[in-house]
Design goal:
Distance between the termini: 24 Å
Strand content: 15-25%
Oligomer: single chain
Number of strands: 18
Radius of gyration: 27 Å
Length: about 375
């Protein structure tokens, strides 16, 4: 099936909508016509250094004006499917719900030795401002977990599990809290208080509740996290206006919100931060990592399966989201760089190049090219 497209200077070309290559050919032709038009305009109006006087007598840069005009002129840029309004609305609803959940979480673990949930971080393409061709429509957030009082987390490289990402084990150690206080009261020390006193006050360490051996168990922690979310739902204000249905998921907490005809799917992941960096180990691979990692549980004998319960995949999703936010503040056309991702993941779906491949490539180009080169008129060159 072919479609006739009229370019900016009146030339008509036929595009086979079932093929990918003619789109790039069209961009090349479009770029040639733009250059011809610029030359003609220059010969007619003379050279003025690329600057012109505006109506108020001031001087403005014609290049900026031309770039703004190209928003309508370059068909491909504006023709890219762009559900940004829906994404922003979904991200906003999800973020507000997470703020409500965080308040309830902190209160619920305040008198226990459970992990301490922190403010949730939006991750994945939706919170970056775009959606890949194969996006499943799920808004994902990552809830960082801090160690409770009297405990520390140490990450150790692990070879357990079958996943495309590196995996780590979260080693849990007890530390002395004899000199520590919480809410004005002395904390029980898991190292130096007697077991009888700990039992009397119903205090159990994390090693006894959510660990296998001395390592944090993903499946035990998932069940604890799911139960915490479930119990917290009735205490958040959104429960009065939204209906929530939990979805079956073994390693994370996924649910669907509905209100009238509107629905929203949310997945709450949790993880542990690597030091002061925006790199986390999480309970399961994120959206872009799932391509080759279908099942985290090994098909090896029982011993190998026990090891996979303590395998936490590494993710750079938080760092990537912050990188795209930083870029959006630097370039004049705030979402143009995301349209490259939107275009390529759609054009090359099923060709063997994953969303993660293209995302890495675009981030690399964003790193090596100054912001001035990320304008609509440069779109064909960047492609």
């Amino acid at each position: 099936m072919t479609k006739e497209v009229k370019t900016g200077l009146g030339r008509k070309i036929a595009i086979n909508v079932g093929m990918k290559l003619p789109i790039v050919v069209f961009l090349h032709l479009r770029k040639q016509e733009e250059e011809q038009g610029n030359v003609a305009a220059s010969e007619k109006g003379g050279s003025d250094g690329g600057r012109e006087e505006n109506a108020s007598g001031g001087i403005e840069n014609r290049e900026d004006t031309q770039d703004a005009g190209n928003e309508k002129d370059i068909l491909l840029v504006d023709g890219i499917e762009w559900p940004v309004e829906d994404l922003e609305r979904g991200c906003s609803v999800t973020a507000e719900l997470m703020e409500s959940f965080t308040c309830v979480f902190v209160y619920s673990v305040s008198n226990s030795f459970d992990p301490v949930p922190q403010v949730a971080i939006g991750v994945g393409s939706a919170f970056e401002g775009w959606s890949p061709h194969e996006w499943d429509g799920v808004y994902r957030v990552l809830v960082p977990l801090n160690p409770p009082p009297g405990h520390t987390f140490h990450l150790e490289p692990s070879s357990a599990g079958q996943t495309a990402a590196r995996t780590f084990s979260v080693h849990v150690e007890l530390v002395c809290t004899c000199e520590s206080e919480q809410l004005g009261e002395k904390l029980l020390c898991l190292l130096h208080h007697s077991q009888e006193e700990l039992r009397r006050k119903q205090q159990r360490s994390l090693l006894e509740t959510l660990c296998t051996g001395s390592h944090l168990d993903v499946e035990k922690t998932s069940r604890w996290f799911f139960q915490m979310v479930r119990c917290s739902w009735l205490h958040v204000p959104q429960s009065y206006s939204w209906h929530l249905v939990f979805q079956p998921c073994s390693r994370s907490c996924q649910f669907q919100l509905s209100r009238g005809k509107r629905t929203l799917s949310v997945e709450m992941l949790f993880g542990v931060c690597q030091g002061d960096y925006d790199i986390f180990v999480v309970n399961q691979p994120l959206e872009a990592q799932k391509g080759n990692s279908g099942n985290l549980v090994s098909s090896q004998p029982a011993k190998a399966n026990i090891l996979t319960r303590t395998a936490w995949p590494e993710t750079f999703a938080v760092a990537e989201a912050k990188f795209f936010q930083h870029i959006a503040r630097q370039i004049s056309c705030k979402r143009l760089h995301l349209k490259y991702l939107q275009l390529f993941t759609g054009m090359l779906s099923g060709t063997g190049f994953s969303t993660s491949n293209w995302k890495t490539l675009v981030m690399h180009v964003l790193n090596i090219l100054p912001p001035v080169y990320w304008r609509r008129k440069e779109f064909p060159l960047r492609l």
